[in-house]
């Protein structure tokens, strides 16, 4: 393993949005065992330092590739495009859709069956997220980086909404 490898190279995966999660997990465990700092306790200081650097890089790569939004950001970064979390989309129709979804989220507590409403909202958000994932993947595959960036910005909105839905669900279950 080299410190200059990108995340996909570390795991021997193709540099695409679609990731074989089983292959990622399997290779992650193998690399963790191979480069775990405890295995280098009796080695030189330099080898111990390299082991820690490798382990940190392996963990960072795994966390990035597991998360769909982080993976998309990373792929665009590899293509020379930087997307920041605070960036927003200019798609008015999408923003209106987001306002409606957030209003539905705010109204969940007052619904006759809050759990059912939350489940439906979560399902709608997941469906919209999958559509943006497909748009991102297709755009990236066609080297349409502006369209891929636009899809990623929408994925960020939807991922945040999903976290808010999950948080409210936890709150309602308590």
Structure characterization notes:
The chain is an all-alpha fold and 174 residues long. Helices cover 72% and strands 0% of the residues. It has seven helices and no strands. Helix 2 (21-35) runs antiparallel to helix 3, helix 3 (45-66) crosses helix 4 (68-78) and helix 6 (114-141) runs antiparallel to helix 7. It is globular.
Short structural summary:
The protein is mainly alpha-helical. The protein has helices spanning 7-11, 21-35, 45-66, 68-78, 92-107, 114-141, 145-173.
Work out the strand percent.
Answer: under 5%
Main sheet makeup: none
CA-based gyration radius? 20 Å
User: What is the overall silhouette?
Assistant: globular
Distance between the termini: 46 Å
Going by helix content, strand content and strand pairing, the class is mainly alpha
Counted by DSSP, the helix tally is: 7
Ordered list of secondary-structure elements with their pairings:
Elements (H helix, E strand, L loop, with lengths): L6 H5 L9 H15 L9 H22 L1 H11 L13 H16 L6 H28 L3 H29 L1
Summarize this structure as a short list of keywords or feature phrases.
7 helices; 0% strand; 174 residues; globular; mainly alpha
């Amino acid at each position: 393993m080299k410190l200059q490898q990108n995340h996909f190279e570390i795991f021997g995966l193709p540099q695409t949005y679609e990731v074989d999660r089983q292959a990622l997990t399997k290779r992650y465990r193998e690399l963790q065992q191979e480069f775990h700092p405890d295995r280098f306790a009796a080695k030189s200081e330099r080898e111990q330092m390299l082991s820690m650097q490798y382990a940190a890089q392996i963990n960072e790569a795994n966390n990035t590739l597991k998360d769909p939004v982080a993976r998309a950001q990373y792929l665009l970064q590899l293509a020379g495009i930087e997307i920041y979390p605070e960036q927003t989309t200019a798609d008015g129709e999408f923003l209106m859709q987001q306002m409606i979804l957030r209003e539905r989220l705010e109204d969940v507590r007052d619904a006759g069956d809050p759990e059912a409403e939350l489940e439906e909202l979560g399902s709608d958000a997941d469906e919209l997220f999958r559509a943006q994932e497909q748009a991102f993947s297709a755009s990236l595959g066609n080297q349409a980086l502006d369209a891929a960036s636009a899809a990623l910005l929408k994925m960020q909105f939807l991922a945040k909404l999903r976290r808010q839905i999950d948080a409210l669900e936890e709150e309602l279950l308590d």
